[in-house]
Amino acid sequence: MDAQQTGFWLEREAPRLHLRELPLAEQPLHRLQQLGPGALSIAELIEVVIGTGEALGRELLARFDDLSGLARAGLDELGGVKGLGVARAARIQAALELGKRIVSASPGDAPQVRSPADAASLLLPSMSLLEQETLRVLVLDTKSCVVANVLVYQGNVNTALVRMAELFREAIRRNAPSILIAHNHPSGNPTPSPEDVRLTEEAIAAGKLLSIDLVDHVVIGHGRWLSLRERGLAFT
Question: Which domain does 134 fall in, by range?
Answer without folding.
Answer: 116-231
